[in-house]
Amino acid sequence: MRYLIPIALVLVLVGFLAVGLELDPRKVPSPLVGKPMPAFSLPSLDGSRTIDDAALRGRPLLINYWASWCRPCLEEHPLMMQLSARSDVNIVGINYKDSRADAQRWLARHGNPFSEIAQDVEGVAGLDWGVYGVPETFVIDAAGSIVYKQIGPMTVHDWQTEVAPRLGVRP
């Protein structure tokens, strides 16, 4: 009898672990969806000016958190390059916890899909945005509200089924 309680506890913990392993980490809900994008003011990657949330309002856009050290960012990069060639998609990059030189080298090598790039060296703005890691992409409506958060590299399927409809463009 005295062994039943520890055995039951172990079985319950194993059950929780099994359920947890089945969850998709890309489906973590964001409490920011439906709310205005967080206020921020960050230097541009080239250091020539400041980019802030107020300047980005008025048009739908994608805000993509990325870094040169991020392997999954490289996976989604060809899709970002394709999307940047479209006239109906505006992608703003926020370089996350990265050095200016590394980010600029990475863009020179792989191409620049961003209409603007802000640099969040310390990751402070990323905390306000609820960034878990990179890449993460936020769909922002013309009023400046977050309508969707894509965790991890965006795939063509993600673009067609989740992102493009929320951005209001054809896939």
UniProtKB/TrEMBL annotation:
Instruction: Cite the entry's keywords alphabetically.
Output: Cytochrome c-type biogenesis, Disulfide bond, Redox-active center
The record places domain Thioredoxin at 31-168
Q: Do you know which InterPro entries this protein is assigned to? A: Periplasmic_diS_OxRdtase_DsbE (IPR004799), Redoxin (IPR013740), Thioredoxin-like_sf (IPR036249), Thioredoxin_domain (IPR013766), Thioredoxin_ResA/DsbE_sf (IPR050553)
Q: Where in the cell is it found?
A: Cell inner membrane
Signal sequence: where?
Answer: none
Q: Mind telling me which Pfam families this protein's record contains?
A: Redoxin
Question: What SUPFAM superfamilies does the entry give?
Answer: Thioredoxin-like (SSF52833)
How this chain sits in the membrane, per its record, is: Single-pass membrane protein
Provide the family line.
Belongs to the thioredoxin family. DsbE subfamily.
Q: What is this protein called?
A: DsbE family thiol:disulfide interchange protein
Q: Which organism is it from?
A: Banduia mediterranea
